[in-house]
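This section describes the prediction task in plain terms. A model, or a person checking by hand, is given the sequence of a single protein chain and must write out its three-dimensional structure as a string of C-alpha cells. No templates, partner chains or ligands are provided. The sample shown here is typical of the held-out split.
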Amino acid sequence: MQLIDLQAQYRRIKSDVDAGIQRVLEHGRYVMGPEVETLETRLADYAGAPHCVALASGTDALLVAMMALDIGPGDEVLTTPFTFIATGEMIGLLGATPVFVDIDPDTYNIDATKIEAAITSRTKAIVPVSLFGQMADMARINAIGEAHGIPVIEDAAQSFGATFEGKRSCGASSIAATSFFPAKPLGCYGDGGAAFTTDAALAEKMRQLRNHGQTAPYHHPMLGINGRLDTIQAAVLLSKLDIFDDEIERREAVAARYDEALSPYVKTPHIDARCTSVYAQYTVQVADRDRVRERLNEAGIPNAVYYPVPLNRQPALYSEVPIPESDAAATRVLSIPMHPYLAESDQDRVIETLIGAVEK
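The expected answer:
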C-alpha cells in the first residue's frame, strides 16, 4: 500500500502518456514547445480564469505572482503559518515580511475573520492557502481585499479542481498559483506549476518574468527568473487532465468511506458546505500521535504529518505572533493513504488499523 499510488495511475494512462512524451521527443522543442501553450489554454478553461502562465514549479508560480505585483522590501504579505515553507519562503526571498494569521481549527485554512485586524499600511497582498484540497473562505477574503485595495493570491498548490460557491480553485480570485508536483491531485512527472490571473497586463508580465524578464530577444527591462515549464511535463499533464474529473470523484468516494467509518473515533476533515475538496490529503486529528503512527507503521500503513512545525516557528521565518490553533493542529494532524486507486480492501485495512491504534 502507498500513501499516493502514482504507478496505478500511470498504468491507466500509459499509452497516452508515452505517446505524448514521444511526440515531444520527435519535434524536439523541449522548452516552451507547443504542448505548453495548449496546456495553458486547457488549464485556464478548466479553472475559469482568463489567463494561465505555466511555470517550472508551484514555488515559481508563487514567486512570479508576487514579483508581478512588485512586492519587495518594506512590504507585508498576510498568510497562514500552517502550510508548506514555500508560501512564506517566497515572501521572505523578495525581502517582504510574512505576517501570519492563525487558522480556522476545522478547515485548517486561514481564519478569514482575523485577516482585517492584521492589515497595515504596508500590506501588499493576502495569500490564503487552500490546504489539503479545500479552498479557503474566498468570498470573505476577496471582499476584504477589495475593501482595502489589496490583491488576493490564492495559494492553490493542493486544491486545483476544488470549488468554492461553484467557482473553481485558481479562478476565484484575481491571482492564483498552483503546483503540479507529482504527489498533487493533478501532478506531472517532475516539478511544474502555473499562475492564473484575471488581469491581462499581469499575465504578460508574469510571462516575461518566467523568462528572465525578457520582453524581446535579449532585451531585459526587469530581472526575472528561469521559470519555464518543460514541454515533456506539459505533455504529461495534458494526458492527466483527461481523467482528472474522474479521479476527483474517486477521491471523494474514498473520503466518504473514511468519513463514515472513522468519524466516531477521530476528527475527520470538515468540508465547508460551500466547498468541494479534491482531498490532496486525507487528514485526521489524533491524540498521542507518535504512538498512533508507530501502530500504523507496524501494520505497514503509510502515513505522514503535514505540517509538524508552523512557518513562524521555523528559524528562517520566526515570529512571536500568537497562533494557538496552528500550534494545536501541528501536534495532532495525521494524513493517511488517499488516492483515486485505493482499493476498498486497503481502505478497510487503514480504517481497522487506525481505529485499533486510537482505542488502545
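For orientation: The two ends are 23 Å apart (CA to CA).
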